[in-house]
């Protein structure tokens, strides 16, 4: 029996994932966590076959959490379950140590297979992600402005271009408004863009968000 820990701050989503896995017969949810600190505490207390992490839980940046988990548990497979499409955030997650990346929109049909794949020692990614990872490793995309961003910068950048304001981002990430504003200024400087509208246009042009996103 494969025993996993699910870390996501939405109770309804965790319940849905447990329901999906309850019908598999070979995968069981042995524990749940609502944030990164809870996840780390449970990982340190018990043995797990895999952990499922949401990238956007309150507090610590998701990429930083992946790195810490891999530092402490280098053999533990990590599956990222995210609201972001696979080709937007997956390469960063995989480079940080994740073994797979699954968009929440595809969880119902692919979640059990993703768990089995990473526990078996494989990578669970789609073809677009594989191609993006290959290009990234070859350095073909390093010059793109959004690849100059730190992991926290990139997280806030994606939230900005999806229409979230500074105050909402601060609340969701448990950061101060001043800290988020500083990140926003750094993002614009690194990318050479003047305002949020230009960030949105850039994100649309590079297929980081859908073309009908609001031009804030």
Features:
about 220 residues, alpha/beta, Rossmann fold, 2 domains, five-stranded parallel β-sheet
Any overview of this molecule?
The protein is 52% helix and 12% strand. The longest helix has 15 residues, at 177-191. It has ten helices and five strands, in the order E-H-E-H-E-H-E-H-E-H-H-H-H-H-H. The chain has 216 residues and is an alpha/beta fold. The mean pLDDT is 87. Helix 1 (11-22) links the parallel strand 1 and strand 2. Helix 7 (151-161) packs across helix 9 and helix 7 (151-161) packs across helix 10 (196-205). It starts with a strand and ends in an 11-residue tail after the last helix. Strands 2-1-3-4-5 form a five-stranded parallel β-sheet, sandwiched between helices.
Write a compact overview of the structure shown.
The chain has helices at residues 11-22, 36-45, 62-72, 86-96, 107-119, 127-137, 151-161, 166-173, 177-191, 196-205, and strands at residues 2-7, 27-33, 50-53, 78-82, 100-103. With 216 residues, it is an alpha/beta fold.
């Amino acid at each position: 029996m494969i025993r996993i820990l699910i870390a996501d701050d939405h109770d309804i989503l965790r319940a849905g994932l447990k329901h999906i896995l309850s019908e598999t017969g070979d995968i069981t949810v042995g524990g749940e966590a609502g944030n990164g600190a809870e996840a780390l505490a449970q990982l340190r207390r018990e043995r797990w076959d895999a952990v499922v992490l949401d990238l956007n839980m309150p507090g610590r940046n998701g990429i930083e959490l992946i790195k810490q988990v891999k530092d402490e548990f280098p053999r533990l497979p990590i599956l990222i379950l995210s609201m972001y499409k696979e080709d937007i955030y997956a390469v960063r997650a995989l480079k940080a140590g994740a073994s797979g990346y699954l968009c929440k929109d595809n969880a119902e049909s692919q979640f059990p297979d993703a768990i089995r794949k990473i526990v078996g020692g494989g990578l669970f990614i789609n073809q677009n992600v594989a191609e993006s990872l290959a290009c990234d490793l070859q350095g073909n995309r390093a010059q793109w402005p959004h690849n100059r961003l730190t992991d926290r910068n990139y997280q806030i950048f994606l939230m900005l271009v999806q229409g979230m304001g500074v105050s909402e981002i601060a609340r969701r990430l448990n950061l101060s408004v001043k800290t988020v504003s500083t990140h926003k200024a750094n993002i614009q400087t690194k990318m050479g863009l003047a305002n949020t509208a230009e960030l949105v246009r850039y994100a649309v042009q590079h297929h980081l968000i859908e073309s009908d996103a609001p031009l804030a």
